[in-house]
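User: Predict ABC transporter substrate-binding protein's structure from this.
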Amino acid sequence: MKLHSQFLKLHSHHGGPAEIQVTLDELAYTLGCTHRNALHIINKMAGLAWIAWTPSRGRGKRSKLTFLADAEEIALESMKQAISGKDIGSAIEGIRGHARSSSLQNTLQGWLLAYFGHHSEIRSNKQIDTLRLPVNQKLHTFDPLYMNLLAESFVSSHVFDGLVGRSSERGLVPGLAHAWDVDSSRTEWTFHLRKEVLFHHGKVLSAEDVVYSLQRLMQTSQRTLYSSIFKEITGVEALNSTTVRIVLRKPNELFLPFLCTSRAAIVPRDMESGPESAFGRRPAGTGPFKLVEMSEELCVLEVFPYYFQGRAHLDRVEILHVPFGIEQAQPDTVSAFHVIPNPTSADASSWSRIHSESYVRKFVTCNTKKNGPLSDPLLRADLLSCLNEAASPSAPGTPEMQPIPLQIATIPQYLGDAEHIASRLVQHGYACSVLSVSPEEFKGPVRLQSDLIVFSLLRDQDEELRLFDLYQTLAQHVEPGIRADIEGTLNLISREPDPGARAEGFKQIEDKLTQDHQLHILYEKPVQTAYLPSVRGVTFNSQGWVDLRHLWFPRV
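Assistant:
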């Protein structure tokens, strides 16, 4: 595979005419190696009939080099070898540079589409159904306490379960707990666990596992999503092997929905015998799939046949990290994806498309807590108005004024949006820089040191929890008066049993921030999935992800 990359590098620098004149020193410089190693590489390529090489004697003499092999064929062969060996990251990155000047991207895409999707084979007289899926986020951990990425949450939702689940038709439903009670003060919750539920490593679920899982959350120093909810827990105890009592500091109507999230997944108590970092890469849950392999590029799930809610139809799921977006193939391509999250286009006559009832909203907020230009509401109004596509470019203030410097903070996933904002503002006379940091760093002081912050909100079945967490975060960026209003409204929302009234409370906060020019919504788009008609059982979990447990493919 390394020789393939070296050929592509040579072709990129020296390919073109049928025959070229080149020195061995020039080839060594291109390959980044010694004169001797360059000659060794050239001879290997010539032996494979990839090139024709006619050397000239004497250092500095120009030799004849002819490319015989097609660069796209070499790149495609390299891709096949890389993916078959589950090591595709470096190969794909190397190929991307070459693909910019050829049709290689389309060729590779077609082969990738053939590799991914549903595959079936017979092993020991049994049909093994495998689904291969690409993700463009690297997967680091599946420990519920440390996850940051939606892709990690997607995998985690198939490895773990929570006490409570969520159904789009029925709302909150039993999970590991088959029933629960709450006292009249709505601060004391009692959960009754199912019997004989197995973890993937063979241990039977008990109330002590629930106690351990929740205490991990209560005691963590991590800045995690929904921490304001689980930090309200003042006590958790096992009344017996199948009964758990949880006591809250005050009533919180978002507590039960929180228990449906991946953050509240139940882990086995005996994980404490090993390092937490190891558990994140080799977790044991109670979910429909168990993790059997994880590396930088590949995550493999196998069906857990003893799952308490019924065996999944798939036998194996392979999730590969592909560091660039894979566009959708033409619908009449035989080797197309069977399931495509967020498709860019689809032919309705050949593809089925379903909307998961989830939306992604991107927006920018102003940090008015920072002592800077955005403390001026008139300037904020002018600045945010510049983000409207209809706004004509015009510099703020008088011509002799220096451009107002602004820093925009975001995470790598939203870098494109942040750069678009910066470009718009530069057209209107502002001076903008974009700071992109990891999700973990983004939770720290970097936000309070910036002028504008680019956020995203996934509007799914967990929207109330996400909004609550979002507005708590935004409250840190605004002046004390508005912060007090936000926190007061959030306190009322947490105690409000009526979902409609809670939704109205969130709307009041959004309207207040928008009218005060603290918040500007960039856009909102639906989360969709396209799939071939051969796919059956397409349903979605609370985050809008396809639920792999219900997918199946008819035998043909």
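Residues 326-338, 344-350 have pLDDT under 50 and may be disordered.
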